[in-house]
Amino acid sequence: MAQLTDDCFAFSGPLLPVADMERMIAERVTPVAETEEVALAAARGRVLARAVIAPLDLPPFDNSAVDGYAVRHADLAAETETKLAITGRLTAGSAPTAPIAPGQAIRIFTGAPMPSGADTVFMQEDTRVEGDAVIVPTGLKPGANRRLAGEDVRKDATVLPEGRRLAAQDVALAAAVGLTRLTVRRRVRVALFSTGDEIVEPGTPRPDAALYDANRYLLSGMLERLGAQTSDLGIIKDDPAALAAAIAAAAQGHDLVLTSGGVSTGEADHVRDAVEAIGKLWFWRVAIKPGRPVAMGVIPGSGSGAAFVGLPGNPVAAFVTFARVVRPLLLRLGGAQAEPLTALPVRLAFDYRKKSGRREYVRVALRRAADGAIEAVRHPQEGAGVITSLTETDGLAELHEDSTAIKQGATVGFLSYATLMG
Fold this sequence. Notes:
Blueprint lengths: L2 E2 L13 H11 E2 L4 E5 L12 E2 L9 E2 L3 E4 L10 E9 L13 E5 L11 E4 L4 E3 L2 E4 L9 E2 L10 E3 L7 H9 L4 E5 L3 E7 L3 E2 L10 E2 L2 H11 L3 E8 L3 H11 L5 E5 L10 H8 L1 E4 L4 E2 L5 E5 L6 E6 L3 H19 L10 E5 L3 E2 L5 E10 L5 E5 L9 H4 L3 E5 L5 E2 L4 E6 H4 L2
Parallel strand pairs: 7-8, 15-18, 15-19, 16-17, 19-23, 21-26, 24-27
Antiparallel strand pairs: 1-2, 3-14, 4-13, 5-12, 6-8, 6-9, 7-11, 10-11, 20-22, 22-23, 24-30, 25-29, 26-27, 26-28, 28-30
Helix pairs in contact: 1-6, 3-6, 4-5
């Protein structure tokens, strides 16, 4: 199980800055220790538990980067064209049978190994053939169009570091150096449920005052994108004892218990009290909008227990706080290298006012302005419960804590939904 500390970690201030929250996670959470070997076909999205060391050079031999003619650069005239006898032909996958001799050229194709003695390749479109000879122009530098053995990866070099969350290109690199299996950390185990008397499962009868549960489907999809192994525990009603029992049971065999709803200060919001009754709350309010009421703590369980995160009930707030709170926690639990969110610069197409000391995320769509610049257009509905504000936009404009009045035309950071979801 993950190693979680419950001492010297509480935050009692009014609002916890986002940067402090991320630092707490990095300093106080230790990744899961268990590892396993997986085949390359199953490695994408997993976190490397052991660095990948190249067992060979890549490429393993000098080869041609183009279709053309391999030559000895020493044979080329400095000021005029050079005529060379064509004495062989090499295709990808074939091995040279003899070294190239002075005054010769070898017809060669992309990926074919360079014949011994040849050091330069002319592209076929730069040459002309006359019978059994090829005429090559002047001006080509020594070594042109030749790929050197090991120019991509040297044998015994670290090609993928421990903690890399493997993308398709990483798996391709492992395959290119001849590996078939990789050692990865086991998946983070997450128990997920929604809370609230007003929430019902889609497909069941819906009372007039009830809403269908969207959050579990939103959060389970985001957890999947981040490689978690999720147990869907359904919906728990607003009952303090039932919530405490559900959270305590979920902490057994899971690394993270994730809920949505019930973490505010209302009389019917019982999640915070339930966590404090059975575990320790690290913090419960973050300086972020939407999503200020978000709780994090630790619940006793098998091993060192499970982390707990309680997200707000409104879907947009749940989305934003998952991206800013759960995402770094989940990566840390899984042993992944830190993956800071890099906001790309865009131009605002609207004015905006906000409170100082709070980081705000505004749902925006991107468009190309008349001058060719990319600008962000604000969604007309700001409510944290408006799910269409997520489906009809491209991402979030990130407005930092020290800003208050942002004018149209200002440059701000933009986080795409693809980036936020891992």
